[in-house]
Amino acid sequence: MGTLIIALVAYGIGMFPVYGWWMGKRIHGEAIMHTGPLQDMVLWAGLEMTKGALAVLIGWATGGWFAASVAALMVVVGSLYPVVPAFRGGGGMAVAAGALFVLSPMLVVAGILIYFVSLLLTRYLEISTSLATVAVMILSGVISAHMYVIIVAVCVGALILYHQPKHRFGRHRARFRGWKNLFRFRR
């Protein structure tokens, strides 16, 4: 019964739009990442990571490894699939990074490095997200010694990959159809 309560609390934390509530704006994570200035993107990512870390810390304090793993999974599910129509979910990457940071900090550091290197090389958010997600799923078996972390990383990674828009991963994969090059760097 305690794990069910932890799962519901983590889901509630995950679906709560912290940035919109904090800044007084009704905006979801994707809009900030695509249109906002750098300060807003950093604030949004920090708040989303804090949301994931808070849920896992609550689970860890009340029920140990198993409850922390359930909380990590449910906070990402809450972020991706909120039940309240007014709360729009984001991509889940920042929440997952915050949740996994509590369970395995080295795994998240490796994922962030892979994300930014691939973003600098490709300049596509979707490619960087996919590469970092798959890399964290694979590296969880190498870096992490705890089975709960491996299970959470694989499940959360699968959810994030599944949640990405379907038209981007259809039969036209090689053409990058529908992908947007959002970052242009000055030389």
Question: Structural class of the helix and strand makeup?
Answer: mainly alpha
Rg from alpha-carbon coordinates = 16 Å
General form? globular
Tally of strands:
0
InterPro entries: G3P_acylTferase_PlsY
Keywords: Acyltransferase, Cell membrane, Lipid biosynthesis, Lipid metabolism, Membrane, Phospholipid biosynthesis, Phospholipid metabolism, Transferase, Transmembrane, Transmembrane helix
Organism: Polycladomyces zharkentensis
GO molecular function: acyltransferase activity
Word description of this protein:
- About 10% of the residues have low confidence.
- This protein is mainly α and 187 residues long.
- It is built from eight helices and no strands.
- The N and C termini lie far apart (58 Å).
- Helices cover 72% and strands 0% of the residues.
